[in-house]
Amino acid sequence: MEEPLAGGANPEPPEVYGTTYAAPTLGLLPAASKRPERVSREDGLRVAETLMLMHDYSQLPVMTSDKTVHGLISWKSIGQAHVVGRSGPLVRDCMDPDCQVLPAHMPLLKAVAEIIRHEVVLVKNVERTITGIVTTTDLSMQLRALTDAFLLVGNIERQLRRLIDGRFPVEVLQSVVHSPSERTIDGVEDLSFGEYIRLLQVPEHWAKLSLKVDQRVVLKRLDDVRSIRNAVMHFRSDAAEATDIERLHQTELFLASLALR
Question: In sequence order, what are the beta bridge partners of 96?
Fold first, then answer.
């Protein structure tokens, strides 16, 4: 469940404590839903080599239909075939028949272990159609982007707490929580990100910050951060895009400059 938009009429609390969200799955990785280039067993080896060079791939699935996988052809399998003296002019002469295929609904933590073990896996949907190919490189790039976003969101929350801390009595902080009886609110650190926004929406609360910046513009940016935060925390496939990382970085620097005033 996502937090409501700043200023919206949604009566639901921004974060439901104790709620169990579905575990992120392999299918949430962008590469898992990007249909891969492929070759057949009867294609010439040069076709596979050309495609791998053209797309800067290390391997290609060997398939005869969207659902039938025979293995992988890779620079590694080609090299091994040459070493053992069984290389030939066709893909089938140099392919590796050992290919791991994982369902898109597999929990991501479990899939990570398989990706690391095999270095590359194919992904299939519920109809058993191959929908993507995920490598350790894809995994590391996605996790790096999410880590960067996670750290930036954390820094933004800390900057917000610095701006708010000590300016409001506990009763005011409790007033922005929909169900304060279900949580202990002793200070600003007990509020959620959405509750920071709700607190600062009140004109007299905003005035207490004594900031010479526009309230509406700042709250709009914080609501953008809230949306990115939800995507990151719920590991959505649209999380941590390059534009989001840049927006988070800008916001972090902006809030840091306000905290120094």
Answer: 72
**Quick one: tokens of 234?**
């719920």
Domain boundary among 97, 119, 134: 134
The pLDDT tens digits for 184-228 are 888 999 999 999 999 999 999 999 999 999 999 999 999 999 988
Span 120-157, pLDDT tens digits: 999 999 999 999 999 999 888 888 888 888 899 999 99
0.70 exceeded by pTM: no
Would you give the DSSP letter of residue 4? P
With residues binned 3-state (H G I as helix, E B as strand, rest as coil), the percentages for the chain, rounded to 5, are 50, 10, 35
Domain finish residue from 92, 117, 134: 134
Amino acid at 148: D
DSSP 39: B
Range of the domain at 202: 140-259
Number of domains the chain contains: 2
Same domain (yes/no): 179, 110 = no
Q: Is 71 helix (H, G, I), strand (E, B) or coil?
A: strand
**First vs last C-alpha separation in the chain:** 36
Between CA 103 and CA 94 the distance in angstroms is 26
Q: How far apart are CA 214 and CA 95, in angstroms?
A: 62
